[in-house]
Task: structure prediction
Amino acid sequence: MSKNIKKKVVVIGGGTGTYTVLTGLKKFPQLDLSVIVSMMDSGGSNRVIRDEFGLLPTSDIRQCVVALSKKKPNELLRKLFTYRYSAGTGISGMTFGNLFMAALTDIYGSQEKAIERTCEFLGVKGKIIPVTYDNTNLVALYDNGKQVLGEHAIDEPDGNLGEHRIVELSVFPKAKANPAAIKEISLADMIIIGPGDLYTSVLSNIVVDGIAESVINSKAKLLFVINLMTRWGQTNHYKASDFLAEIKKYLFKYPDYVLVNNRKIPSRAVSWYKNVKSEPVNDDIKSTLDMKVIRGNFIHSKYYHKNISDKLTRSLIRHDSSSLAEAIFSLL
Amino acid sequence: MSKNIKKKVVVIGGGTGTYTVLTGLKKFPQLDLSVIVSMMDSGGSNRVIRDEFGLLPTSDIRQCVVALSKKKPNELLRKLFTYRYSAGTGISGMTFGNLFMAALTDIYGSQEKAIERTCEFLGVKGKIIPVTYDNTNLVALYDNGKQVLGEHAIDEPDGNLGEHRIVELSVFPKAKANPAAIKEISLADMIIIGPGDLYTSVLSNIVVDGIAESVINSKAKLLFVINLMTRWGQTNHYKASDFLAEIKKYLFKYPDYVLVNNRKIPSRAVSWYKNVKSEPVNDDIKSTLDMKVIRGNFIHSKYYHKNISDKLTRSLIRHDSSSLAEAIFSLL
Result:
């Protein structure tokens, strides 16, 4: 990599997987980082932000802000941005970061401006770009013909719907890509998707009108990070090849690079995950596929502790941001 | 005043009057400022903070934080600290500042620490000292024998109770002064009380066990700023002499200095105030009293605009922070 020209890396996602990738990559000053963020979240704090404040959801943005903000002198604000209230009728379950951005939107009269000011205020390195400014929702069509509206309903499916495959993901109403997102993608040297919930964090961006097209037309190398665990209701029993098939389905091509963890998931974690019907993703990628597969130990050594005030289910096993970022960086 | 030795000024209060005094005084680098703040607020945002979060009320502290914070680089945080939500079930009516301090209390495990960190974070000049860390409420005994518990109930009295005089103010349960408040008072060169709601913002501090005694024993000059308007339910039809009599009743002495506005209140304001049963305070202070009376134009030229999301009634006429502070400074 040339010493003087920064490489432009565009991460597309939202959620904890993207947080991990950004946390690792921000340590490389040689990178010009942007993140395109899903705007369809409808659970927990976001339901209130959408339904009661009439704003677009900001939880995915909030996580990116924390990931990309300079540690000093913003340690206190970073702590606050990850804080979730556990008391107060109507307040319990809300995140400070979402309330912060809601107040700023009211003060500045625009959510776009509020997000910009939040990034300035927390000293964010890189650009955080909402995938769309249209108010829209995810729609999943399952293999039993059932359609479900809303990210939260897809994330926590009713009854036995979680056993079924999502055969088509779309948005309703139709949403147009943020022009800034299109621009970033067109200028990228590398585009990173995953890890993260395949439909609600990753493909949720790709199905916004204009995004898939610009990824396909970009000269950037496409890198995909395979999830560590399957997720009931989204990637039930998915093997690595299933993930790749879904990427090909929505982007009409395979990624140029695939990162796969080859370290055994600790058995304690595997048995905990059985409670939520998750299992380690089986690496069944055939060497005949036209892509470079990078295998390594990408697991974070510490388990994640679930916050009791958090009403949503969070997973215990995480990618390690440093080893992931180093592997990515070596490909540039 | 000596050039090198800072004069120690201790303001005792809470609410908008104190905000005005502090805003004016902070411009004088020659002053070592402290404010001792009432902790009995129970209305609006504070009810939630007390009843649902189980914390001490912080609205009076929040106002002092904004008054004493450095404008740059904290302009955005100052704006946020004065922001009150107008949407969200359970959130509408809450102030950002109170939610900020509630989150910090949870993060640091102590409200004292949270207040300290808030002051550091917003670059507060001077010290903000809660009058007590005991969880207590104001109790007012009226001249009809009725007793009312709680700042909010006293502030907005039911029925015709507002016509009656408060003959005794106390706290229940008994509350002990914060030792830091006692210390500041003992070291003060000047103690300032008022303007502000006489019972719920000013005397609410004095009735905390230990405060009156330390004011009486302090060598500091005592300065009292007479309110511009009476307030139904607290100082209904009070003249300046009634205010002074109440100060003497709770502090066993008259103030050394009294600041009284002598500029006519604009008739438009007087007629608006009739709706809330308020009238200009009549200056009937006799020259025979052993105190220095400073009369001047202390009215702010602009009217205050009531925020529609604010559930409490706020007054329109304000003291002017600059002329008030200059008059005070000239006495040091």
Observations:
- Chain B has a mean pLDDT of 93.
- Chain B touches chain A at residues 48, 52-54, 76, 79-80, 83, 85-91, 94, 96, 99-100, 102-104, 106-107, 117, 121 (CB under 8 Å).
- The first strand of chain B starts at residue 7 and ends at 13.
